[in-house]
Specification:
With 224 residues, the chain is α+β, with helices and mostly antiparallel strands. The protein contains 11 helices and 7 strands. Helices cover 52% and strands 13% of the residues. The strands form 3 sheets. A 3-stranded antiparallel beta sheet has the order 3-7-6. It has a two-stranded antiparallel sheet with strand order 1-2. Helix 6 (93-102) runs antiparallel to helix 7 and helix 8 packs across helix 11. The longest helix has 17 residues, at 113-129.
């Protein structure tokens, strides 16, 4: 997938645009620094104290932009992450993750709630980066319907891909190179080849979905 360099300030501006599209954005605005910290921090070695430092930098950047603490620096991002960030904001997925972490019981832990939010979102973004074009499409479909379907079945997923009898892809982005997209026609071969099960298993293996069985059917849910 496409990658390019973006300044920290440009990333903040993009997040502001996405948040502006949300009807009830109070929680996203409140935890904007944590979201940006998750996008730009590196907590691979479990150094959670660095989350506090990154959040502090972003809070200073947001509250006193004239200082340009981060604005002149650049990071490398994947287009997939920016695409996901927009849908995750608008669909309510980020809001749900933040609320879930905020309501947790952290008695006995030295890590702050803010750091917990940043780390949880960082883990989510890190897992999304592992996606390939074909399973990313399935995950984006599920994310786009999060407000209506906190849980979903295979039948729900199939219904989101296209109208009955219409195999044209409704999620195509020219930055993706999906193996299931037929060139020049935009026909979704995933629908024709019934590859949804493979994609759902991939999302489960990558830690993005949980599953349970109900009435002899598998039900899928986003992992928080």
């Amino acid at each position: 997938m496409a990658e390019y360099y973006i300044s920290y300030k440009e990333l903040e501006n993009l997040l502001d645009q996405y948040i502006a599209e949300v009807a009830d954005s109070a929680q996203l605005v409140e935890h904007k620094a944590e979201i940006l910290s998750a996008l730009t921090g590196d907590y691979e070695q479990g150094n959670w104290d660095s989350a506090k430092e990154m959040i502090s930098l972003w809070e200073n950047q947001i509250n006193t932009p004239s200082q340009l603490l981060l604005g002149s620096r650049y990071i490398r991002v994947q287009q997939v992450m920016l695409d996901f960030l927009k849908i995750a904001c608008v669909s309510g997925l980020l809001d749900a993750v933040i609320m879930y972490i905020s309501q947790g019981n952290f008695t006995g832990f030295t890590i702050s709630v803010g750091s917990n939010i940043a780390v949880a979102l960082w883990e989510l973004f890190t897992n999304v980066k592992k996606l390939e074009d074909w399973d990313f499409c399935v995950y984006m479909q599920a994310t786009a319907h999060f407000r209506e379907y906190n849980e979903f079945t295979l039948e729900d997923l199939k219904s989101w891909f296209s109208d009955v009898g219409n195999p044209i892809c409704n999620m195509h982005n020219n930055t993706w190179e999906c193996d299931y997209l037929e060139e020049n026609t935009d026909i979704c071969k995933m629908i024709q080849e019934q590859a949804f099960e493979k994609a759902l298993k991939s999302l489960y293996d990558k830690g993005l979905l949980m599953t349970r069985k109900e009435n002899h059917k598998y039900v899928f849910k986003f992992k928080k």
